[in-house]
Write a structure and sequence with these properties.
This protein is α/β, with parallel strands linked by helices and 391 residues long. It folds into two domains: 247 residues, Aspartate Aminotransferase, domain 2, CATH 3.40.640.10; 134 residues, Aspartate Aminotransferase, domain 1 (Alpha-Beta Complex). It has 15 helices and twelve strands. Helix 7 links the parallel strand 4 and strand 5. The longest helix is centred in the C-terminal third of the chain and has 19 residues. It is globular, with a radius of gyration of 21 Å. The termini are far apart. Bound molecules: pyridoxal-5'-phosphate.
Amino acid sequence: MSDYEPQTRAVRTQAAASRHAEHSVPIYLTSSFTFEDAEEMRATFADEIQRNVYSRFTNPNVAELAEKLCLLEGAEAGHAVASGMSAVFATFAGLLSSGDHIVSCRSVFGSTHTVLTKILRRFGIGHTYVDADDPDSWEAAITGATRMIYLETPTNPALDIIDLEWAGELAARHDLILVVDNCFATPVLQRPLEYGAHLSVHSATKFIDGQGRVVGGAVVGRKDLIDDIFAFCRSTGPALSPFNAWVLSKSLETLALRMERHSENAMALAQALEGVAGVAAVRYPFLDTHPQVDVARRQMSGGGGLLTFKVEGGVEQGRRFLDAVRMSSRTANLGDTRTIVTHPASTTHAKLSEEERQAVGITPGLIRISVGLEDIADIVRDVTRALAASR
Ligand SMILES: *Cc1c(COP(=O)(O)O)cnc(C)c1O
């Protein structure tokens, strides 16, 4: 297998077939694994043999998913877990100790914000937020206690782009672990490890599943770091169900195709929305009007499936738009085959103060669209018709 290209290996990598020689990999829905004899069991528990023992530790389907992700992302090691948030939390908890400090981009996923501000704080792990559009401030935020730089690019929901090559150099200069939440781009469009990131974190729930079925997560990157994260997970238990791992692993086989079409459709919708009455500030990483379009085009091979725009008229106008769509789904997910519309100011980010929302680019009329795989003509019609109907 090793002489094939990464995409081929990601499609063809499978856990071992059973004696039935099935073509699709079986689901190893078992909580534990049996031993030939007392000696094999002793040697396993003494770490003399590596094998499956118990599915909280390892499972063939979970290992297959992690291996495929590693191939796509160019990572030497990886571990798949129960959700994107368990991947984020295990990355912090597996690598940091009380007294350590994280420099994090301010615009992070809502639950990551809660982990940083409310949970890690109780364990004596501090953080300083820095802004994606003010890279000069990042170096000043690094203290003697800083161990990690954490960022998302593109950010959610502002779609800011952070220059990964620059961030990689900053981390190397200060000997810090650089962690990138690569959920929006997926390994198909962006491989942070190639730019000096040490770990890439994923919510597999989003584009990796791609069809809105199961929750899962993963972290891939440098082996010594993954070993520590795995050790944390093994004992604390955010284990991914073998069934979910099987679904997600199958999905990886079509990820490249799907991301290509998500990107194509999102670009077409972004272009169609520019200049539409009542719409301002259409934002998409590959649009010429995006402030970091050059960086996006350098480090991403496609713009991804997410775009945002502002409806004129604020919160009420945003809610009216959401009510006016006929085809698109109103749901708190993204990265689905079906187009999804959300209004962050009245939903996912409603608990933040107006000031906090402004700081992460969430204006009252901001609409986020996760562009799906329907015919682009229907997607454009649904959004433009809803815009006209809600004015
Ligand atoms: C959804 C999401 C997460 C969390 O993933 P879950 O699978 O929901 O736990 C983390 N980061 C980003 C950018 C996300 O969109």
